[in-house]
């Protein structure tokens, strides 16, 4: 971000970027709280037991359903995952789990997305995947993130420096992220193999899903969750005080 301001916008003098941090409601939750939420949330209740046992993995994304995010990329990745789950059932990944994908938000392209899902379901191309949409309160959205196995961000940055707040919220909830990483500022928020994974195509996202969900001991996903939880502990005071706080003389 600092490099863009200096090189592109010719900003002179000291440049000190401040990154967004998660709001207080985005926190990891205890396993008992996770179980209660999964059982009560209408979108997860029917799959709650399988999610808790690992037979089904809960994937979450959020969107305003605008052209800025191409959700056909996610659909294509889920189709590929479903096909691979069938063809690899007796080979390299004998127990790829089902996926419950919940996409939250409202917007102009939602109906077109739902129409395509219906077609794919009729064509039996989502055999290992169930896709639901939801509109949740801020409190339940935070609990959904904390209860999920993986968050997905399809945000593409036209400027190269705007970081998606949804990813900040996911990390705040201790949720590892798979995200579109083809822009310069992405590594300032998500560190590859530490708190998330990047991709640049539907095939790349499918590979991420197979790699993380196909690991029998879930060690890779657990490692990313630890990294996400650590990143999420950094809150506004931690970001503000060492930079703006010192610059303005508010902290020593």
Question: Care to give the gist of this entry?
Answer:
This protein is an alpha/beta fold and about 250 residues long. It has helices at about 1-5, 30-40, 50-55, 70-85, 110-120, 140-145, 165-170, 200-215, 220-230, 235-245, and strands at about 55-60, 100-105, 130-135, 150-155, 175-180, 195-200. It contains ten helices and six strands.
Structure description:
With 252 residues, the chain is α/β, with parallel strands linked by helices. Helix content is 42%, strand content 13%. Strands 3-2-1-4-5-6 form a six-stranded parallel sheet, with helices on both faces. The two termini are 25 Å apart.
Blueprint of the fold:
Layout: H1 2-7, H2 31-40, H3 48-53, E1 56-62, H4 72-87, E2 98-104, H5 110-122, E3 129-134, H6 138-147, E4 150-153, H7 165-172, E5 177-180, E6 196-199, H8 202-213, H9 219-232, H10 236-247
Parallel strand pairs: 1-2, 1-4, 2-3, 4-5, 5-6
Features:
10 helices, 42% helix, 13% strand, 6 strands, alpha/beta, single chain
**How many beta-strand segments?**
6
Percent helix among the residues? 40-55%
Secondary structural class: alpha/beta
What shape does the CA trace take? globular
Strand order of the largest sheet: 3-2-1-4-5-6
- Uncertain segments are none
Strand content: 5-15%
Q: Please tell me the overall pLDDT.
A: 90
Q: What sequence of helices (H) and strands (E) makes up the elements? A: HHHEHEHEHEHEEHHH
Major sheet: 6 strands, parallel
Give the number of helices: 10
